[in-house]
Amino acid sequence: MSGAKVVVIGQGYVGLPVAMRAVDVGYNVVGFDVDKRKIDGLNAGKSHIDDITDADIVAALATGRYAASIDEASVAGFDIAVITVPTPLREGAPDLSYILAAGEILAKALKPGATVILESTTFPGTTEEVLAPLLDAGSGLENGKDYHLGFSPERIDPGNLEWDFKRTPKVVSGVNAESLESVKAFYDQICDTTVPVSGTREAELAKLLENTFRHVNIALVNEIGVHARALGIDMWNVIDAAKTKPFGFMAFYPGPGVGGHCLPIDPSYLSWQVERTLRTVSRFVKIANDVNDHMPDYVVNRVQLGLNKQRKSVNGSHVLVLGVAYKKNSNDARETPSTQVIEQLLELGAIVTVHDAHVDAFHLDDRAPRVELTEAVLKASDAVVLITDHDDVDYDMIVANAEYIFDSRHRLEGDNIDLL
Ligand SMILES: NC(=O)c1ccc[n+]([C@@H]2O[C@H](COP(=O)([O-])OP(=O)(O)OC[C@H]3O[C@@H](n4cnc5c(N)ncnc54)[C@H](O)[C@@H]3O)[C@@H](O)[C@H]2O)c1
């Protein structure tokens, strides 16, 4: 391994932790990204994700074995390449353009004996049917014979201190036994546990199963939660009771909707492929999308009812939205349900302000300006809507000063609070 070169394509939530661990264990690492702002920041010792500190980046740079680069030439001569680029949806269909762009860059630099690993979440068959032909054609080499190729789904859970990249078991796969061995050997050095599976398609589907499982279970508690509220039953008490069963139950909690890069998107990779190739429908994904997508509507509806009880209309009311990140203690606002809630409140004529100390910029900033969390701001708000319950917020101060709070996270207690 000494002197071996690892290239990580994409230095985002997934790629940066991989790059840092590879530096930790002694590899020479290039973090390649097309985003100049991120690359400049990294080379100046600044991290753009919560789970990696500035000190981690400074320490990695100080080893002389980490450099972030926007220059394609920097990938030349790699021994191991890991692809961690986005896999979004475009008009409801998988957008593999980022994987294709990464593959083209790597194909030009591919040498015999090297290993290429895809980590981006995608539908089964992507590694062997999309990436492999591209790498073969661009390099003149044959996957599985001249170079190793595999898929290893990422399991990054931003903000999860217990299950970080190193501790979380890593599923590994290859296009053949030799490729699997090479992929496994790499992750055996940077992760505590690797889990070899029989093929790349199994590994690709395992990731989609994990995320669809979560998506469906969240939708289930969201739907039962809405019904429970209408029946006058506290869903959180129900879940607390159910989770005392030591087997056959796993607690999921209702919320204002799902966000981030996984749940709103990944299950649709599965349903898209099932519909396209099997001409049938992924019913669970469809229902889960439907339930989870409508949770922001439900939140707005409940806020409307809450204001109504106080003889106020949403139109003209001052509404403070707390939290725009899609999950607590995170700075990630991608696909956040806050967007829907804010847009709907604005459409109804509310004067919306926002507070979130974790998220730097938010595309609705001009229509829903940022405010500091002060007693005066809280007192001037007709409603406070808690969407993201970051831990570093003074909730006692909020409860003491706000007239009416809608709490979508079941975080607060008090007479002025409506729970989801
Ligand atoms: N973040 C998570 O919690 C999470 C969870 C599950 C799955 N995933 C999956 O992991 C993959 C990566 O997600 P992420 O959260 O790290 O995204 P991200 O947006 O944080 O990072 C991706 C990076 O890739 C860069 N990039 C785009 N095109 C590139 C190219 N051609 N060459 C080099 N860099 C390029 C982007 O500039 C960006 O910095 C996706 O498939 C996503 O679905 C992420």
SSE succession: EHEHHEEEEHEHEEHEHHHHHEHEHEHEE
3D shape: globular
Rg computed from alpha carbons, rounded to a whole number of angstroms? 23 Å
Distance between the termini: 53 Å
Give the number of DSSP strands. 15
Q: Give every kind of bound small molecule, once each.
A: nicotinamide-adenine-dinucleotide
Mean pLDDT: 95
Secondary structure: helix percent: 40-55%
Helices and strands: which structural class? alpha/beta
Number of helices: 14
Task: Report the biggest beta sheet as strand number plus sense, adding barrel if it closes.
Answer: 6 strands, parallel
The main sheet orders its strands as 3-2-1-4-7-8
Low-confidence stretches: none
What amount of the residues lies in strands?
5-15%
Describe this structure in words.
- The chain has 420 residues and is of the alpha/beta class.
- Helices cover 40% and strands 13% of the residues.
- The protein has helices at 15-24, 36-43, 54-62, 97-109, 126-139, 177-190, 200-230, 235-242, 266-278, 283-293, 295-309, 337-347, 375-379, 395-401; strands spanning 5-9, 28-32, 66-69, 80-83, 89-90, 93-94, 115-118, 148-151, 170-172, 194-196, 318-322, 351-355, 383-386, 405-407, 417-419.
- The strands form 4 sheets. A 6-stranded parallel beta sheet has the order 3-2-1-4-7-8, with helices on both faces.
- The longest helix has 31 residues, at 200-230.
- The mean pLDDT is 95.
- Nicotinamide-adenine-dinucleotide (NAD) is lined by residues 9-15, 32-35, 38, 84-87, 98, 101-102, 120-121, 154, 156, 158, 260-262.
